[in-house]
Amino acid sequence: MDNKIHSTLLFSLLFFITHLANASSKDQCNQNDKKTLLKIKKSLNNPYHLASWDPKSDCCAWNSLECDDATVNRRVISLTIFSAQISGQIPPEVGDLPYLQKLVFRKITNLTGQIPHTITKLKYLRFLRLSWTNLTGPVPEFLSQLMDLAYLNLSFNYFSGSIPSSLSLLPKLSYVDLSRNKLTGTIPESFGSFSGEVPDLFLSHNQLSGSIPKSLGNLDFNRIDFSRNRFIGDASMLFGANKTTFSIDLSRNMFQFDLSRVEIPKTFGILDLNHNGITGSIPVQWTETPFQIFNVSYNRLCGRIPTGGKLQMFDSYAYFHNKCLCGAPLDSSCK
Fold this sequence. Notes:
Layout: H1 2-26, H2 31-43, E1 65-67, E2 76-82, E3 88-89, E4 102-108, E5 111-112, E6 127-133, E7 151-153, E8 160-161, E9 175-177, E10 182-185, E11 200-202, E12 207-211, E13 223-225, E14 230-233, E15 247-249, E16 254-255, E17 270-272, E18 293-295, E19 302-304, E20 324-326
Parallel strand pairs: 2-4, 3-5, 4-6, 6-7, 7-9, 8-10, 9-11, 10-12, 11-13, 12-14, 13-15, 14-16, 15-17, 17-18, 19-20
Antiparallel strand pairs: 1-2
């Protein structure tokens, strides 16, 4: 009899523990975060893309987000909405996810409006990607309040106005992509003195103009893309034999400088200078550079193309339509 009672008690205890475990595992995400997420879903008109966001289930199991597994009270740290049939604006409630480190709205063509000021409340935000949407308005000055921000990508939108100089104040910024927008004005002088590391800088396919600030020559950029804008003047300060630059694309602008005097590091892999007004000749030292992509066509270069190294690996397309450039791979022989 005692054994039966003992077995019954043991079974009851096991059942209680299992039931308690199941109950606790049902909803492990923070309840404030859950309420905020449901507001975001409602603000986006309850799209099918967020069908898994069921108030009866654990929000840490929902699609498009990630919770922090390192804490007992699991907080939402990532919200990524990608290739979704969604119409509307970025919900201001995203600013009410206080532990968010990553925020992505990408390839959502019916996402309109401006970047909400409420994202300044996201003190831990490190990764912000709002790309391939129909967002408009300026690139906000208030982005400089996101002191943990390391990655900023606002490409393929309709942002207009000038580039905020305050972005250079972000101490952890390592990647900036503002390409394919409608930005105007010049590159801020402050971009020659980023307070932290030197970021990769992508500003292509805009309506930017003016000269490149000389202060940019003080920095050792790894990747730069200023192509398809309206820049003029000298860009030679971006180069330097003692730098560790890998890629520079200045194509389809109106730059004018003497290429003969330009020294480049042996780390260079990509150089595109096509469709400018660059003069001089190609330095012989460039034969020592392991180029993967190279194009100096549609300029005003003269002289013999140096032989050796990688320079002869590229076809005539990389060299043609210059003033008096000659030698292989061009058909024109040097007199």
